[in-house]
Specification:
mainly alpha; 4 helices
Length: 126
């Protein structure tokens, strides 16, 4: 009588648990930057900060998809990476605006958290 156990699911791995935790942090960071960008745009009258909010909103969607990809599978992971790429493209497109340094500083933070999330989610899926 052999006692073979089923292989662990992606969520049961260390990378899966880490990706789920980082996903929560990433979603909170992105949501905070969305709110901050809208607030500063209203207070300063500079609509370029709405670009920061839009990029953070795309990043929020990417973070939620990255967190869900641990249980949903590679298709969700790929969609999340595409959204993160669109967010990065939006940030790069806004570098010529008057708030280029702000976009770089917030953008690097958002993209670093996204990188951690998606790299752990990918390790959990493989």
């Amino acid at each position: 009588m052999s006692t073979t156990s089923a292989p662990p699911s992606a969520l049961d791995t260390q990378a899966g648990r880490t990706a789920r935790r980082i996903g929560v942090v990433s979603a909170l960071v992105h949501a905070g930057i969305v709110a901050l960008g809208i607030f500063v745009a209203q207070q300063s009258g500079t609509p370029a900060y709405l670009l920061l909010s839009a990029a953070a909103f795309l990043g929020l969607g990417a973070a939620l998809l990255g967190r869900a990809s641990v249980t949903a599978g590679p298709g969700t992971w790929t969609t999340g990476v595409v959204l993160a790429g669109l967010s990065a493209g939006l940030l790069l497109g806004g570098l010529t605006s008057g708030i280029g340094l702000t976009l770089v500083s917030f953008g690097v933070s958002m993209l670093f958290v996204d990188y951690l999330l998606f790299s752990n989610a990918r390790r959990a899926l493989h």
